[in-house]
Amino acid sequence: MPTLTKLYSMEEASQHNTEHDCWVVIDGKVYDLTSYLDEHPGGDDVLLAAAGKDATDEFDDAGHSRSAKELMKNFCIGELDTSAPTIPELENSSKKETNNYSQNLMELTKQYWAVPVAIVGISVVVGLIFLRKK
Ligand code: HEM
């Protein structure tokens, strides 16, 4: 039977950044370390500094033992959803762009209305000159 892995966006993980709710992302996996803060041999301060963040580098730099890596499995609550945008504003602005396509077109028309008007104007002037010559 396939296992269902819960996916979390970085946006969601970043909201769990307190001593009462402490999530950390390591190697694309999300860990809830709230209950481990007081037990962590490296201290709770390092975990709190990494709360709501990707702490892969910090975790590796601490040179954790094999038993620490076994232990961390107990706190894994899911994986990072890599398809979710890291910067939500980017998604919003790109969505806005598609939604406002027709609005953008209107803006462009407003901005360049002078071009067709100039063409018509020049045609009228040339026409008048041509008629006068006849
Ligand atoms: C996933 C959860 C984690 C577990 C289960 C865990 C477990 C442990 C354990 C068992 C030790 C004792 C030494 C060892 O056996 O390697 C340790 C030390 C340490 N950990 Fe963690 N750790 C975790 C996450 C982190 C994170 C995210 C950081 C940094 C942001 C960190 C920083 C440290 C430091 C600085 C030490 C002390 C190393 C030393 O004394 O040389 N740990 N950790």
What does this structure look like?
There is one protein chain. The chain is built from seven helices and five strands. It has helices at 10-13, 44-50, 56-61, 66-71, 88-99, 101-111, 114-133, and strands at 7-8, 17-18, 21-26, 29-32, 76-80. β3 (21-26) and β4 form a beta hairpin. α5 (88-99) packs across α6. Mean pLDDT is 87; it is low at 90-96. The structure holds protoporphyrin IX containing FE. The site of protoporphyrin IX containing FE has 21 residues, from β3, α2, α3 and α4. Protoporphyrin IX containing FE (HEM) binds next to β3, α2, α3 and α4.
Largest sheet: 5 strands, mixed
What is the CA-CA span between the terminal residues?
91 Å
Look at the structure and give the CATH class of the largest domain: Alpha Beta
User: What's the pLDDT, averaged over the residues?
Assistant: 87
Family: Belongs to the cytochrome b5 family.
Subcellular location: Membrane
GO molecular function: heme binding; metal ion binding
Pfam families: Cyt-b5
